[in-house]
Amino acid sequence: MQHLENYTFDELTVGDQASTERTLVEKDLILFAAASGDVNPIHLDADYAAKTPFKQRIAHGIWSGSLISATIATVMPGPGSVYLGQSLKFLRPVVLGDTLRIELEVISKNERKKSVEIKCTVSNQDGKAVVKGVADVLAPTEKQKVDRPQLPEITFS
Asked: At what angle do helices 26-36 and 61-74 cross, to 10 degrees?
């Protein structure tokens, strides 16, 4: 079984970086629409999307934002992190098959609050930024190493 291990507030320093990658597949669009209730046809209907400026279906913008959240929660700072806020700018669309790289960098620390500001950049396989922002995160104060939860396989019929 894989584990998740965090970085405590005291372990984090300005300039620390972490990253993950994820490729957008059909199942992501469907599951995100089902979970969020956002069934905008630009995400789900190829014929509709073909008539838009994007000419094809695009991911929900906040799907890319959720990848930032996942990276904060599982990589840096990791388990025990609490999201306090997030600014996001959506710079270009994400389409099926795009492989996104989520990059985090600690840009400041608040000793009193035990929080960190994290610069967040999501780039596509061409190295072009699709989302940029800054997260305000309450960093864990205690070291944790936990089993990575196993998610069920989801199938569509």
From this structure: 90
Q: Are 112 and 137 in contact (CB under 8 A)?
A: no
Taking the C-alpha atoms of residue 135 and residue 116, their distance in angstroms, rounded to an integer, is 8
pLDDT tens track for 75-85: 999 999 999 99
Report the chain's terminal Cα–Cα distance, integer Å.
30
Contacts of 76 (CB under 8 A, 6+ apart): 7, 12, 16, 17, 18, 104, 106, 118
Go through the domains of the chain in sequence order and give each one's CATH number: 3-24+59-143 (3.10.129.10)
94 touches 123 (CB < 8 A): no
Determine the Cα–Cα distance for residues 109 and 144; give it in Å rounded to an integer: 20
pLDDT per residue as tens digits for the range 29-74: 999 999 999 999 999 999 999 999 999 999 999 999 999 999 999 9
Residue-level length of the chain = 157
Nearest in space to 29 (alpha carbons), one of 19, 38, 20, 18? 38
Comparing C-alpha atoms, which of 97, 104, 115 is closest to residue 74?
Answer: 104
Q: How much is the pTM?
A: 0.94
